[in-house]
């Protein structure tokens, strides 16, 4: 009898662990994808999302050649925060950006910052001046006439509209 109870408890414990692992698959909580930032003055948009949330990075740049950039999107374990980071992993971009906008769909931005240089090769992040960009409810956008045309990283964290029942 005790053996049957132990067998059932072990099976139940295994089932609970299996269900919790499957239900909280970390692959569904975060993604990092590579994309090319292209010069030429043409407006491009790159987007990535998780579930109901999406980050779109729209830009136009001049000079140089294509640069490889990364976009990371993540959803907190409790589904209350959605984050988006876009950056050049080699550090400073050699392109001149004429415009940029990041948009978080399905969230309200709680924090955002943009940088002219990213931490790489012993260098540290160099933030843009606050007057160079504007943070709205769902967007982070350059300010015409004040943006210095240097962008290497942009980070935004938004509060989701996820409510507990």
TrEMBL record:
Keyword annotations of the record: Signal
InterPro entries xrefs: MYDGF (IPR018887)
Cellular component GO terms, alphabetical: extracellular space
Signal peptide: 1-23
Domain of life: Eukaryota
Pfam families: UPF0556
The keyword Signal appears for this protein: yes
Any one Gene Ontology BP term: positive regulation of endothelial cell proliferation
Protein name, as recorded: Myeloid-derived growth factor
Organism for this UniProt entry: Seriola lalandi dorsalis
């Amino acid at each position: 009898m005790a053996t049957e109870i132990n067998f059932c408890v072990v099976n139940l414990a295994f089932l609970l662990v299996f269900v919790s692992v499957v239900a909280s698959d970390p692959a569904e909580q975060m993604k990092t994808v590579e994309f090319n930032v292209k010069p030429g003055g043409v407006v491009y948009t790159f987007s990535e999302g998780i579930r109901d949330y999406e980050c779109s990075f729209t830009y136009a740049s001049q000079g140089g050649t294509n640069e490889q950039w990364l976009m990371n999107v993540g959803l907190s374990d409790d589904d209350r925060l959605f984050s988006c980071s876009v950056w050049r992993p080699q550090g400073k971009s050699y392109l001149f950006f004429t415009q940029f906008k990041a948009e978080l769909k399905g969230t309200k931005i709680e924090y955002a910052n943009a940088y002219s240089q990213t931490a790489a090769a012993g260098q540290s992040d160099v933030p843009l001046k606050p007057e160079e960009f504007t943070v709205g409810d769902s967007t982070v956008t350059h300010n015409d006439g004040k943006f210095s045309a240097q962008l290497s990283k942009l980070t935004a964290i938004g509060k989701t509209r996820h409510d507990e029942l």
